[in-house]
Amino acid sequence: MLRFLAFRLSRSLLTLVLVVTFAFVVLRLSGDPALIIMSPDAPPEAVAAFRRSWGLDDPLWMQYLRYFTAILHGDLGNSMRDGRSAIALVGERIPATLALTLPALALKLGLGIPAGIYAALHRNSFADRAVMLLAVAGFTVPSFVLGLLLVLVFAVQLGWLPSGGQDTWMHAILPVITLGMGGAAVLARFTRSAMLEVLGQPYMRTALAKGVPWHVAVRRHALPNAAIPTVTIVGFMVGSLLAGAVVVESVFSWPGVGRLLVVAVANRDLAVVQCILLLVAATMITANLVVDLLYGVLDPRLRMGAREAA
Amino acid sequence: MSAPLLEAEGLVRRYTMRRGWLGRPVEVRALDGVSLTLERGRTLGLVGESGCGKSTTGRLVLGVEKPDEGAVRFEGAPLPPPGTAGWRALRARMQMVYQDPLGALDRRLTIGAQVAEPLEIHRLGADAEKVAALLRSVGLRPDHADRYPHELSGGQRQRAVLARALATDPALLVCDEPISALDVSIQAQVMNLLAEVQAARGISLLFISHDLRAVRQVSHRVAVMYLGRIVEEGEPDAVLHDPAHPYAQALVSAIPHPGRRGRRIVLQGDPPNPAARPTGCAFHPRCPVASARCVAETPALKPRPGDGRRVACHVAQGEIPAGQGIAAPQLREAA
Amino acid sequence: MSDTTAATPPPATLAAPLARKRAGLPPMVLFALLWIALMLGIAFLADWISPFSHTALDLRARLAPPVFMGGSWLHPLGSDELGRDVLSRLIVSIRLSLLIAFGAAIIGAVLGVTLGFLAAHFRGLVEQAVMALVDFQASMPFLILALSVLAFFGNSLPLFICLLGLHGWERYARIARGLAISAGGQGYAAAVRQLGATPWRIYARHVLPNIASTLIVSMTLAFPEIILLESGLSFLGLGVQPPDTSLGNMVGYGREYLTRAPWILLTPSVVIVLTTLSVSLLGDWLRDRLDPTLR
Angle at Cα B235 formed by Cα B229 and Cα B239, nearest 5°? Predict the structure, then answer.
């Protein structure tokens, strides 16, 4: 187990290094930041000064090394627009994003997983068909369409809820519902198919054949086994807590990380984009790590690190 | 007499195997010094349990894999490295028949297209008449050319594989368990077909099987393998009637035989595991006549003093008297 | 998989099983096929059937409501804030959105299959590198990656299509690698190699046709995701740029007039939803028909 942990940890770190390198390479490939930031008709001396102050004249490997050590020190550069530290800029947006994504995650889990289990246990019933229809709809209706529809109905027509902004908790209701519905649909569909797969396994039939009551068999055999694939997708959802709300934040003018990202991309504020990219990568990788460890707890076969099939 | 078609000298093939995702790599010696010779137009039968290295020998002889030690010479020249143009060109001269004919055929192409494929690859002109002639020569009808593999029976599929292998008129055919996946009633037909093909074309066969009777029926010489080594080699009648090596004796005694009152040798101990190879003679933990020297020293494959039979056994060579067998603590531990 | 296909004839072509099952075509799938056909027809005939140029202004008829909300037949689906005909813009948007999605799906499939085959053929380091990339891609939310690339490289239509082509390549790579390795071990690919075929011939003539149905199903399942991504990015104003217009782009700009002229964004929204729904239904159905092994 310890070796497994060490192995997974080193692999996660490697992936993180990969992301950092990716960001650096893409950054360098994308052209001269001096010319992007400064207007094309800026005086050459100003461009040269800009280049010097950002260290753009040094050889590439030195820039990479500096870049890397800076990141290790938690220095992700300053916004090329207003000169503030990128990490501070991003950091002050995180609470706003979490205020949307955490309740939305609860909504996804609380709605999606029970609906999926119920649908699987009552296969081909009316409820199953309804859940599946909603699940397909949840996947095919893009979040911006759903969000705007909700605004149209509840803010414009009925006037019950505000259409955008972040002043009261009332403002969070529509974005949280928008975020939660899509995820709940995906989760319901996934849980249902995982459950159906498990319910068809021989050990379920064996348990029932030897007289184990249905609800006991479901609780003791079906649910833990169906949880294994479901954990993966939940892990992905947890990992995208920071950046899963890009579109929804834009729809509802919610001042979170996603909104910041969109503005930074539109302005080509590379330091901020890169900071968000690294933060998202780090959360994603951590979530993956936790999922892998959870696998070990849920699936005794994997506990010894015998993962030949992987 | 001309040079032999195929000579293999001291072939060693090691695989590293991991136990699990993080396990320590374990070296497995699939082949541990195999030498063999195959004359033109003759058949060499290779027998042994599964896992003894028969199929690995077949792949090395064809050059699909490179041996870690040793060399294969075909028509006097060393085999080019696998995957090179020279190796590919040589495919026209050496071909293979597989255990699972359905797996060896492409499900999405007709039999005709697949039989024509080697002709296309080696630019020998793939016309319908040639394909029809090939199909006829293996006992299929020309109209089978339009069928797909799943539309044929097992025996017919194996005939199609044989037709494809024969398309370029090769000098060597390696048959790896060609009949073991077939119904018993079909096995004899395929065996007869192989004998006919050999008689008609003067082709050399390396016939790999665990079925002693099948080997005896087609072979001019027989080699018995145990854990990556040849332990006995000779004329099929001699080896299979009067085996010299204790392992060969056990194999032969296991053939059900009408009218023979059974003195069957039942082997003791665990089946061979190439990852935990016993010291000395690899067979000693299961051998009824082993003694201390068998644990210490690996016997060489050499002609026996009396009749010149090639056998790798201290007892059969008369070097030591028959012992009482050795219990195998080290083997149990390893397993 | 081998067991089932051994018993039942494998689909020699894609069309054969479709033809056989047409009698029992579920109504939802029938609707999906009709809708997709309609969309393809519109995309191909866009230049002939759109009543106006998608950029033509009609300043006297700004924000004209559609027919079903009391408007005139001059602009059946209404007009936008500059008096541009919504129907014409919709038709042109459908064409561009489908073009982008098709282009991206094909790029993704070609890239993924190529990398998967390379991994299966060379094994060793090449395979490790490809699989590391696959892991990396699978573990990052694609929207974030796409946004970063757009930030770094700016935007143009070809770049945008290529960028969306990066979506989902890892799935094709996994499938192609897995199936190629299993065919190579003891299977037909090893046998063809032993016949002396070049790797090119093995992969193009044997492996690719054998995994084609699986790949087509995966492409059908990935297609709606690409449409959603495209429309999402365009909605954010970071995808298709004016004067070009796409479905997401229309929703994005129509949003400003949500209260006064909801029809500007409602019709493209409906088209997005129905198209993704249709293609997903078709994909699910194809998967059940052709390739039950796919999750």
Answer: 65
In the DSSP assignment, the letter for residue B226 is: E
- CA A70, distance to chain mean position in Å, is 25
Measure in Å the smallest separation between the Cα of A224 and chain C Cα atoms.
20
- Has residue B19 got a pLDDT over 70? no
Cβ atoms of A257 and A90 closer than 8 Å:
yes
Number of domains, chain C: 1
Q: Does B100 touch chain C (CB under 8 A)?
A: yes
Is residue B160 within 8 Å of B111, Cβ to Cβ?
Answer: yes
CB distance C25 to C17 below 8 Å: no
pTM of the model: 0.78
Residue C32 within any structural domain of the chain: no
In a domain, residue C226? The reply is yes
Contacts of C191 in chain B (CB under 8 A): 96, 98, 103-105, 161
Over residues B95-148, the pLDDT tens digits come to 999 888 888 998 888 999 999 999 999 988 878 889 999 999 999 999 999 999
The domain of C168 spans 92-294
Tokens encoding A33: 């930041």
CB contact under 8 A, C195 and B102: no
Looking at chain C, which residue has its C-alpha nearest residue B103?
A: C187
CA distance C181 to chain B (A): 13
Cβ of C15 under 8 Å from any chain B Cβ?
no
Q: CB atoms < 10 A from the CB of C74, how many?
A: 13
The H-or-E segment that residue B11 falls in is strand B6-18
| C56 within some domain | no
Residues in chain B with CB shorter than 8 Å from the CB of A4 are 22
CATH code, domain with C217: 1.10.3720.10
Are A308 and B22 inside 8 Å of each other by CB? no
Residue A201, token pair as written in the block = 């396994």
The HSE-up count of residue B281 (CA atoms within 13 Å, CB side) is 30
- B-interface mutation test, from C193, C194, C203, C216, most B Cβ less than 10 A away: C194
Distance CA B94, CA B80 (A): 13
Task: Say if A307 is an interface residue toward chain B (CB within 8 Å).
Answer: yes
Q: Above 60 in pLDDT, residue A235?
A: yes
The answer to whether residue A278 scores a pLDDT higher than 80 is yes
Question: Which residues 134-153 in chain C show a CB within 8 A of chain A?
Answer: 135-136, 139-141, 143-145, 147-153
Interval A40-66: pLDDT, tens: 666 777 777 776 766 666 777 777 888
Phi then psi dihedrals of residue B302, to 5 deg:
-150, 160
Q: Are the C-beta atoms of C279 and A143 separated by less than 8 Å?
A: no
Nearest to C280 among A15, A139, A281 (CB): A139
Distance CA B31, CA B226 (A): 10
Euclidean distance between CA atoms C157 and C167, whole angstroms = 16
Give chain A's domains with CATH numbers.
2-72 (no CATH), 94-309 (1.10.3720.10)
Cα–Cα dist B104/B269, whole Å: 36
Inside any domain, residue C160: yes
